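Page header: ASSEMBLY MODEL / two components / 662 residues total.
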Amino acid sequence: MTAPTRGEDESQAPVIAEFVDTTKRFGDIVAAERLNLQIRRGEFLSFLGPSGCGKTTALRMLAGLETPTEGRILIDGQDMGDAPAHRRPVNMVFQQYALFPHMTVAENVGYGLRQRRPRMDRAEIARRVDRALETVRLSDFGPRRIWQMSGGQQQRVALARAIVNEPKVLLLDEPMAALDAKLRGEMQMELLSLQRVLGITFILVTHDQQEALSMSDRICLMGQGRIVQIGTPRDLYDRPANRYAAGFVGSANMLDATVQSTADGQARVALADGSSVTVFSAGDRAAGDRVAIAVRPEALRLSVSDSVDAGATGFAATITHKTFLGEHIECLLHHPVLGQLQVNVPRQAERSLPGADVGRTVHVLWDHGSGLILGQD
Amino acid sequence: MAISRHKARLLLLGPAGLWYAALLVLPLAVVLVYSFGERAAAGGYAPAFTLAQYANLGSRWAAFKNTLVLAPAGTLAALLIAYPLAYFLAVRVNPKWRTALLVLVIVPFWTSILIRSYAWIYLLGGRGIPTLLADLGLGDWRLINTPFAVLVGIVYGYLPLMVFPVYVSLEKLDKRLLEAAADLGAPPWRSFLQVTLPLSLPGVATGSMLVFILLMGEYLIPQMLGGGKVFFVGNALVDLFLQSRNWAFGSAMSVTLVATMLVVVTLYMRFLKRIGAARDDIGVM
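Prediction written out in full:
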């Protein structure tokens, strides 16, 4: 937990792109509202959120494909103002790739270089195209037609077409959405290693929380046009800012509670059934505050014995569903006052739970220090 | 009830096959045979085997010249007018107006080309536009019965046939390709030349072929707006068959016209293939 992540290592890197109070409206619809965000050189940042949350609009404003209604966008210290897309030092990998169907793979990859003025030497273009194709492991595919390439290959052509221009920022708009699950995993690994080799800043738009968690140095979680939370994947997972963040990244049991006492960043809170638990508390809380708390399903444990260990609070609840998911078993339980609770039981722990079947009442154990108080939505 | 593949093919192709055999192949064969014959003394056809009719084609050179100049010129003019219009309709216009505007393109077809050509006779005639120009002190213009009048007439008549194929090819163009081109550093005019134009060439080819082939066989518009001074091969054919009753010479001229069209169309297709428009990958789109 305390090991420094890459994101923290690079916190001193210079800012390469910046949103300053950036707002985009389409008629009455606010697609992005007062975005404030600094993206650092060499960083892998993801815009995460459901469709319509403004993440793609944010990316398109960076690319110059949309103009902000208010506020500014800076790239490498330069205010982009109304600079059109073709004058910006960024390149994009489009959703479904948008490859030129009337050009070969090599012609597609060389397109950006051919737009340079003064013109780039043809031999130099060919050399760089070859190198880019080599980088994405498509060395011999230059003369091929786009329609002769598989989905995964097309994705790599789109990647090569962007990185060959050595952009200051590479923008990726849901690049993996069209790939099947296995290929997606491979491409994620490839993208990560590519980013490390090239050292280019990557900005990824995705609705897939696993993708964002596994690839990003930092995640910018968005909802309804606004930035909800910015942080490392661990920050977002362990310290979600509010109900929305807790629910969108991973799953969480969310409960209403009343603060009883606070100390050292922790709070003792009372739940609706009168029992109390100790949770992490970031903000200023006073006894008597009504708050929402969240705890991850894998932070809870089940026990078939009646004894509750010291350092935990127990709740008697009835198992209503058990779903086998390979590495763990997802259990849904019903508690007469707290309602539904989800507990993910690891395979190894299952052996110590004889007879914990649907219909059986067991103990849900909540260790002190697990869970946290959520902020306002 | 299963129908064998053979029977199915016969059922599908039979009606059209009979139609074309009876009304296209057979007449063409007749015309080909007649073209080697002679004019009967009282007019019509007399059997013979001579190349005399073909040797005499030079006497009707003016008709070929007019057709071979005005048909390509009309096609080109129609293309230059239709492309921006189709581009506007497919790319720029607010989609809620698109259908209404497309209907406007077809509206002229609701009136017969004959009546619309009559209208042009008055517009281009002595008391039409030339009077207006003279009153404005812009000089003395004679428009009717000139190549210009015929060009105006054919472009006017065939413009919609050019607009639609070009519109369709531009409409199905993936607009994200233009965003990709811009993102990769192409200013708008260059992304037009490098992406939009090449990807719309199939529509340009279809429209041009359609208009060009129809113009090569045009009869009505030169007849009305050319006033016997600017005539196409079609007008010469009517004259030969109905006035001079020289069926053999008319047949030789018909055969030459069809052969010319085949050659021009083949050359055009080759040209398009060479500039990449007929690439199979565009066909797939």
